[in-house]
Write a structure and sequence with these properties.
heterodimer; A: 506 residues; mainly alpha; three-stranded antiparallel β-sheet; 6 strands; 60% helix; elongated; B: 312 residues; ABC transporter involved in vitamin B12 uptake, BtuC; 2 strands; 3% strand; disordered C terminus
Chain lengths: 506, 312
C-alpha cells in the first residue's frame, strides 16, 4: 500500500471532514428525548479504497443553525441600543416568517393574512389587558387562542379557493381588519391604536438598555420556539401529508390523505403561534397600531420570504435578516432603502430558482452541467468509466470490466475488413480464420437484451426472419426488420452483418 | 338610486374596468399577474403632468386659450398617457417577461418581479418628484351639462365616453387586426397558438404595451377627479386586481361585469349617509369574498378550462 502512486483529488471527497472511529467499539448515538430521532445525522461507511471505517456528518445544517443563532445571542448584548432593537425586530419578524413558511411553503397556500393574524391577536391581547385588566402573562394565552380561532376561519376557504383567489381573499381580510380597527369609535381618540399596554418589560425599564435586552431575550426565545414548531410540523407526519397534497389534491385524496383536515391543522397550529407573536408584539412596543395591517408592511414581509427562498426555514431567516438590516439598520438612507430591497428582490427572482438558499444547489447543478458538457466535448468515452463517475461506483469490478470491454472492441474494430465479411458470407459455420473466430467469440458473449436471433416463419419451412430478444422473462422478442431470408446461411450472415454494424457504431 | 349615483357609479366602473381588463388580458394571454399595473398608472400620470408643464405655454401661444386650446391639450394629455403607459408596459416586458418566461414557476416569479418593479417605481417617483400631489389640467373643463334632465359633471361624461370608445376600439382591434387575432388566440389556447406558428415572445410585447396603455389612459381619466401622487397607483391596482379576479381571471365580459358591479357598489355605499366613503373598501371586499366563496372561480368561471396549467 505504501508505494501506491499519488491519487488525483477529484470530486468533493477531499474537502469532506471525516472522523475515524474505532471499528471495534459499538456505535452509540444519543436520541432527542421522547423521539426516535438522533441529534445529528452521522453516517458510517468504509472507504472503498483504503477500507478504513470513516464517519461523516451527512447534514451539516444543524451546526450552521447553532453557530449563527449562538453568535446572535452572544454578540447582541454587547451592541448599541439601536442595534439591539434591530436584532429584536429581526427575531420577531423571523419568527413570523418561519411560521408563514409553514403555510406558504409546506402547505403551498398563498395566504397573505399572516400579519393580519398577528395584528388581530395583538389587538385582542392588548384590549383584554387595557380594558379588562387581565395581567400580562395571560396575554400570551389570549393571543394564542385568538390566533387559533382566526386560523380556523382562514382555513375554511383554503380548500375551496386556490392560488391567487385565496391570496386575494386574504388581502381583503387584511384590508377589512385595518378599516374595522380604524373605524372603531372607542379607539377614535388614538387613531386606532391601543397604548399603555402592560408588558413583561417593567415600565421603568422601557426603552432603557435593560428593557431592550429583556425584549431581545424574549424575541430570541420566540424565534427558537417558531423554529421548533417549524421542525415539528414540517418534518413530521403533518408536513409530509401537506407536501403530498400541495401539488395535486385529487391524487392526495385518492391515496387516503385528508388534506382538508391537514390544512386546517397547519393553519390553526401556525396561527396559534402567530397569535403568541402578536401578543408579544403588543407587549414589546407597549402599544399596537393599525400600521401592522398596512399593505407596505405586508409587501416588506413578502420581500423577506422571497429573497430568502420560499419553503425553507433558513430561507425565511436569511431573507428577514437582509431586509431588516436594510430597512431598520440603514435608516439614514431614507427612501433609497426600499429601492434597495426591491432591487435585491428583482435580482434574486431573475437569477435564482428559489431564493438565496437555493442558490448553492443551483450553482452546483450549473457547474456539474458545464463540467459534463466540457467532458463530452473533449473525450471519446466509448463505454469506459470516467474518473468522476468512478468515485461514485460501489462495485469497482465494473470499472475494470468496462475498460476491458472498450479496449477489446477497439481491437476488434481493426479486424473487420471486407475480406473477413466475405469469408463469413461464404461459410457462416465451420472452421474460420483467427480474426473471424475472435470476432465471433466476442459476439457470442454479448448480453441477452437485444441479442439477435433467427426465427423460422411458421407458414413456410424455409423462410426466416431476424428478431432481437428482449432479455426480459415473459417479454416477447421484437422483429428487427421485415426482410425474409430464404436459407439459414443467409440468415446467419445477416445477423453477423447486424452485429458488425453495432460493433462499428459502438 | 339617484341619477347622480348612477353616473358616479358608471364613471368609477369605466376607470376600474380599464385597469381590470388590462390585468385580465395580460393574465390570460401571457400568464402573468401584473402587480406593476399600479406603477404604470402612477408613472403615466407623472409623465402626463410633465408633458402638460412643457406643452401648456406652447399650446397657449399657438392656439390661444379658447376651445381649440383645451381640445389640443386634452388630446396631448391622452396621447402622452397612452404613450407613457405603453413604454412602461415595454419595460415590464423587458424585466418581468423576457428573462424568465421560459423558466419554471413563471407565474409566481413574474408576480414577484412586477411587485418589485412596483415598489421600485413608487420609491423612484417619491425620490424625484417628492410626496406632493400634482394636478393635471382639466381636459374636459369644469362645467356641468344637462343630459335628459340630469345635471352631470363634464369630466364624468368625458371619462365614460372616452372609456367606452377606447374599449370598443380595443375589442375591434382584438377581433379584426392580425396582431389582435394572435393575442386572442393566445388567450384562448396558448399551446394551440404556439403550434400554429404564433410567437409567444413577440405576442407578449404588444400585450404588455396595450395593457400599459390602458393603465395610462385610466391614470389620465382618474386624475381628472383625484391628484397624481407616487402612491396613486396602489388603490387602482388593488381594485383592478380584485375586479379581474371577481370577474374570473381571463374573462373579458366577467371583468366588465365585475367593474360595473364594483363601481356601482362604491357609488351606492359612498352615497349612503351612515356608511360613507370610509366603508367603501370594506364593503367591496366583503362583497368579493362572498362571491368568491359562492363561485370560487369568479363570475366568468372559465379559468378551470383555460388556465389549469398556469395555476399559481
Amino acid at each position: 500500500m505504501s508505494e501506491m502512486k499519488k491519487l488525483y483529488e477529484i470530486g468533493n471527497r477531499p474537502r469532506e471532514v471525516f472522523l475515524s472511529p474505532d471499528g471495534h467499539r459499538p456505535v452509540h448515538k444519543s436520541r432527542v428525548p421522547f423521539s426516535r430521532r438522533h441529534w445529528l445525522k452521522w453516517r458510517s461507511q468504509y472507504n472503498p479504497r483504503s477500507l478504513k471505517l470513516e464517519k461523516r456528518l451527512a447534514d451539516k445544517k444543524p451546526l450552521w443553525w447553532l453557530l449563527s443563532l449562538g453568535l446572535l445571542a452572544v454578540v447582541t448584548p454587547f451592541l448599541s441600543n439601536s442595534a439591539i432593537t434591530v436584532a429584536s425586530i429581526f427575531c420577531m419578524f423571523a419568527a413570523i416568517n418561519v411560521l408563514w413558511t409553514l403555510i406558504i411553503g409546506t402547505a403551498g397556500i398563498f395566504s397573505l393574512a399572516t400579519l393580519a393574524v398577528v395584528g388581530v391577536s395583538g389587538y385582542a391581547a392588548a384590549a383584554f389587558n387595557v380594558y379588562l385588566g387581565v395581567p400580562w402573562p395571560f396575554m400570551f394565552a389570549i393571543g394564542c387562542l385568538t390566533g387559533l380561532v382566526a386560523g380556523g376561519f382562514l382555513a375554511l376557504p383554503s380548500t375551496r379557493l386556490d392560488g391567487l383567489y385565496f391570496a386575494l381573499l386574504t388581502l381583503g381580510i387584511v384590508e377589512i381588519c385595518r378599516v374595522f380597527v380604524q373605524q372603531l369609535k372607542s379607539l377614535g381618540a388614538t387613531n386606532g391604536s391601543i397604548n399603555q399596554v402592560d408588558s413583561f418589560i417593567p415600565s421603568d425599564w422601557f426603552l432603557q438598555r435593560e428593557g431592550l435586552l429583556l425584549g431581545f431575550a424574549g424575541a430570541f426565545l420566540l424565534l427558537l420556539g417558531a423554529l421548533l414548531m417549524f421542525k415539528l410540523v414540517n418534518s413530521e407526519r403533518l408536513g409530509m401529508l401537506l407536501r403530498t397534497a400541495r401539488d395535486e389534491e385529487a391524487f392526495a385524496e385518492a391515496i387516503g390523505i385528508d388534506y382538508r383536515r391537514a390544512r386546517l391543522m397547519v393553519f390553526m397550529v401556525s396561527s396559534a403561534g402567530l397569535g403568541i407573536i402578536g401578543a408579544f408584539y403588543a407587549m414589546y412596543y407597549r402599544s399596537i397600531s393599525p400600521s401592522i395591517f398596512s399593505l407596505d408592511q405586508l409587501l416588506l414581509l413578502f420581500a423577506m420570504i422571497v429573497i430568502g427562498g420560499i419553503g425553507r426555514a433558513d430561507g425565511a431567516v436569511i431573507g428577514t435578516a437582509i431586509v431588516v438590516l436594510i430597512d431598520k439598520g440603514l435608516l439614514d438612507l431614507g427612501p433609497i432603502r426600499i429601492l434597495l430591497v426591491a432591487a435585491i428582490m428583482l435580482l434574486v427572482t431573475l437569477l435564482t430558482n428559489n431564493g438565496l438558499v437555493g442558490a448553492r444547489d443551483q450553482f452546483r447543478n450549473f457547474r456539474n452541467r458545464k463540467k459534463s458538457e466540457a467532458r463530452a466535448r473533449r473525450t471519446e468515452k466509448g463505454g469506459e468509466v470516467m474518473p468522476e463517475e468512478a468515485t461514485d461506483m460501489l462495485d469497482k469490478q465494473e470499472i475494470f470490466y468496462r475498460r476491458f470491454n472498450k479496449r477489446l472492441r477497439d481491437e476488434l474494430k481493426q479486424l473487420i475488413t471486407p475480406e473477413l465479411i466475405e469469408e463469413h458470407r461464404a461459410k457462416p459455420l465451420g472452421r474460420h480464420s483467427d480474426a473471424l473466430s475472435r470476432v465471433l467469440n466476442y459476439f457470442r458473449r454479448s448480453e441477452m437484451p437485444d441479442k439477435y436471433a433467427i426465427m423460422r416463419q411458421p407458414e413456410n419451412f424455409n423462410h426466416y426472419k431476424i428478431v432481437a430478444l428482449s432479455g426480459e422473462r415473459g417479454a416477447p422478442p421484437r422483429l428487427v426488420d421485415d426482410r425474409l431470408y430464404e436459407s439459414l446461411d443467409e440468415a446467419y450472415h445477416a445477423v453477423f452483418l447486424l452485429r458488425v454494424n453495432d460493433l462499428l457504431e459502438s | 338610486m339617484t341619477a347622480v349615483t348612477l353616473i358616479h357609479g358608471l364613471n368609477l366602473a369605466a376607470i376600474y374596468g380599464l385597469m381590470a381588463i388590462g390585468i385580465s388580458i395580460l393574465w390570460s394571454s401571457v400568464g402573468m399577474i401584473n402587480m406593476a399595473h399600479g406603477a404604470t398608472f402612477a408613472a403615466s400620470g407623472y409623465a402626463a403632468w410633465q408633458v402638460s408643464l412643457i406643452a401648456q405655454p406652447l399650446i397657449n401661444t399657438w392656439f390661444g386659450t379658447g376651445l381649440d386650446a383645451s381640445l389640443v391639450m386634452g388630446a396631448t394629455m391622452v396621447a402622452s398617457g397612452l404613450v407613457a403607459g405603453a413604454l412602461f408596459g415595454g419595460l415590464i416586458f423587458m424585466l418581468a417577461y423576457l428573462p424568465i418566461h421560459e423558466k419554471a414557476n413563471f407565474a409566481v416569479r413574474s408576480l414577484i418581479v412586477t411587485l418589485a418593479i412596483n415598489l421600485a417605481t413608487v420609491q423612484l417617483l417619491l425620490f424625484f418628484f417628492g410626496p406632493r400631489q400634482r394636478a393635471l389640467p382639466k381636459i374636459f373643463g369644469f362645467g356641468r351639462t344637462e343630459i335628459l334632465g340630469i345635471s352631470v359633471r363634464n369630466d364624468q361624461i368625458g371619462t365614460i365616453v372616452a372609456t367606452a370608445i377606447l374599449m370598443l376600439v380595443v375589442v375591434i382591434w382584438l377581433k379584426r387586426s392580425r396582431k389582435g387575432l394572435e393575442i386572442t388566440a393566445m388567450m384562448q389556447n396558448p399551446e394551440g397558438a404556439v403550434l400554429s406558428g404564433i410567437s409567444v415572445r413577440w405576442t407578449a410585447l404588444p400585450v404588455t404595451m396595450l395593457t400599459g396603455a390602458l393603465a395610462g389612459l385610466a391614470a389620465i381619466l382618474l386624475s381628472q377627479t383625484v391628484f397624481v401622487s407616487p402612491t396613486a397607483g396602489a388603490l387602482p391596482l388593488i381594485k383592478g386586481l380584485t375586479i379581474a379576479l371577481l370577474g374570473g381571471l381571463g374573462s373579458l365580459p366577467g371583468a366588465i361585469m365585475g367593474a360595473i358591479l364594483i363601481g356601482f357598489l362604491e357609488a351606492i355605499v359612498g352615497s349612503i349617509s351612515f356608511l360613507g366613503q370610509r366603508y367603501v373598501l370594506f364593503s367591496q371586499f366583503l362583497f368579493i369574498i362572498t362571491v368568491l366563496i359562492i363561485r370560487p372561480r369568479g363570475l366568468g368561471g372559465l379559468l378551470d378550462e383555460t388556465r389549469e396549467s398556469r395555476n399559481v
